[in-house]
Every structure is written in structure tokens, then in C-alpha cells.
Amino acid sequence: MLRIAVPNKGSLSETAAQMLLEAGYSGRRDPKELHHSDPRNDVEFFYLRPRDIATYVGSGALDVGITGRDLLLDSGSSAVETASLGFGRSTFRFAGPAGEFSELADMAGLRVATSYPGLVGDFLAEAGVSVALIKLDGAVESAVRLGVADVIADVVETGTTLRNAGLEVFGPVILQSNAVLVSSPEEKPGVATLLRRLQGVLVAREYVLMDYDCPVAILDEATALVPGFESPTVSPLHDPEWVAVRVMVPRTETNLVMDRLYDLGARAILVSSIHAARL
Ligand SMILES: Nc1ncnc2c1ncn2[C@@H]1O[C@H](COP(=O)(O)OP(=O)(O)OP(=O)(O)O)[C@@H](O)[C@H]1O
Ligand SMILES: O=P(O)(O)OC[C@H]1O[C@H](OP(=O)(O)OP(=O)(O)O)[C@H](O)[C@@H]1O
Ligand SMILES: [Mg+2]
Q1: Domains of the chain, with CATH numbers?
Q2: Which of 66, 158, 216, 260 could, after both became Cys, cross-link 16 (CB 3.0–4.6 A)?
Q3: For ligand 1, atom 1, which residue shows the shortest CA distance?
Q4: Is 134 exposed, middle or buried (0-12, 13-18, 19+ CB in 10 A)?
């Protein structure tokens, strides 16, 4: 059985659980359950703190898990990033009181509060800036106002938490993070199936199927405009001057593509959702 670590709480937990359901696995019914077995799919789930997941997977206690790239790097674990899962996007940034800091060197010798000392320590060592790291568990944006630190380094999504604390980002982006699949260095056989299933969910979310009728005379132009994932499916119609085309289109471009195809001369343009996929 493949042993999979899933975030039990926090920003990643709901979407991770939802993705696994859409990928055909059964999940826990009660949020207090720490373990759930899905024998039909030959997997079992362990619900753990997102911060601990890379440690379990890196040690080989569990085979694979879902966590944040920032947490993986902070852990120093030997787990490896197998795939990006396209949700929980954030950046990891330095921030200080508005207008006081502009570059990394400005914080030399000062106190930097963070919940990610491994990640921040490695970044500053690489940059050759020496600081005093203050390790806090969370809500680090309050550390400056409360006089515990001069600067913070933390997850930024919308920037609202920073603004509310009177802080602004400065210096280079430490990391672009999002949810990732991590696996033990010796990858177990079932990981490839899990990954294909999760990638199927991503495709179903990110793409739609578009069908349209196309005059043969403009087929090359139309397929150049919307090349699809590999190559469009082109089928004959009863009228020899027309063909039917089926193609995958990024969901966000749906209406733009429909307008362009219509202007070219395509008709009966229909869009449908993809329920599941293996590419
Ligand atoms: N506002 C956010 N937007 C996107 N991703 C976020 C956000 N906050 C945290 N994350 C990401 O979620 C992951 C885990 O953080 P999360 O906040 O869920 O855990 P935690 O801070 O340990 O737990 P909690 O906040 O529940 O105490 C990290 O990878 C982080 O980058
Ligand atoms: O840029 P924003 O959209 O405001 O989001 C970023 C905030 O979200 C997370 O906090 P969380 O709620 O996880 O609390 P924590 O700091 O205690 O982990 C993160 O640590 C930031 O504080
Ligand atoms: Mg948090």
C-alpha cells in the first residue's frame, strides 16, 4: 500500500483533500481522523501538519506527501519535489516598516523574525548577509510592532496581512512557492499512478474541450490559432466542404478563442468541461 501524507489543517488542507477526491480516492469523513485507509486504490492516508510532512517522507516513514515548496526547503529533509500541484501559490518575502528598507544589505546585523529559519538562513548565507534570526511559530507580522524584530520574512499572498501591520516588502523574492508532491528519494512504484491521477485533475481544471465545425478552406488557419495539447482531432462531416474539429483549450482563454474562431468562419462552437484525464 502506498502511504500518503496529507495536510490535516491550514491553507493547503482543503484543496489537497478535494484534489484527492477528484482523483478517485476515498477520504476521511471526520476531520479528527488522523489515518484513512483506501484498500480499493491500494493507498492509505496520514493526516499530518503541513510543516512535518517533508520530514516523514524524507525519513522514508511515508512514501509521498502534499506540502508547500517553502516548507519542504525549510525542513532540510531529503524528500524530493516530484511535481507542482498548481494551488496554494504564494511568495516568500522580507518585509519591514514602510519606507525603511530597500535592499538585503540594509538588514545586516539586525533581527529577522520568521517561522522558516532553515529557508531564510540558507538564503541569507548564500547572499552573504549576517543577521540574528528570531524563530516564531506564526503571525510573525506582529513581531516588528511588538519590538521583537526589525524585519520579518514570511509567506505573502495578497499582502493584506503585511499592510495591516504597517509593513512593506523589500529585496529580492526569496521563493515562489505552491503546493507540491514530495516523495522519498527512492520513489515507490505507486507514486507514478498517484501523480498521473493528480495531473489528470489539474488538466480537468485548467482545460476545456472545444468542438467546432470548420470550412475546409480555413482549417489550417483555425488549427494554427488553436493547436490544442498535442494535435487537434479533425473528423469528416457529411458536407465535404466542412470538417468537425475537437481541441483542448486553456479554460481562461475560452471566450477569446471562440471569438477568433467565429471571426475566421467556424460555426457551432461548443465548449464542454473535462471530467477526468490521462494525457
Ligand atoms: N495566505 C496563503 N496563501 C497561499 N499559501 C499559503 C498562505 N498561507 C500559508 N500558505 C502556504 O501553506 C503552507 C502551510 O502553511 P499553513 O499556514 O497552512 O500552515 P501553518 O502556518 O503551519 O499552520 P496554521 O497557519 O494553520 O497554524 C505553506 O506552504 C505556505 O506557503
Ligand atoms: O498576504 P496574505 O494574503 O495576507 O497572506 C499571508 C498570510 O497568510 C499566512 O498566515 P496564516 O493565516 O497561515 O497564519 P500564521 O502566520 O499564523 O501561519 C501567512 O503566514 C501570512 O501571514
Ligand atoms: Mg500559516
Answers
A1: 2-88+178-204 (3.40.190.10), 90-176 (3.40.190.10), 207-273 (3.30.70.120)
A2: 66
A3: 157
A4: middle
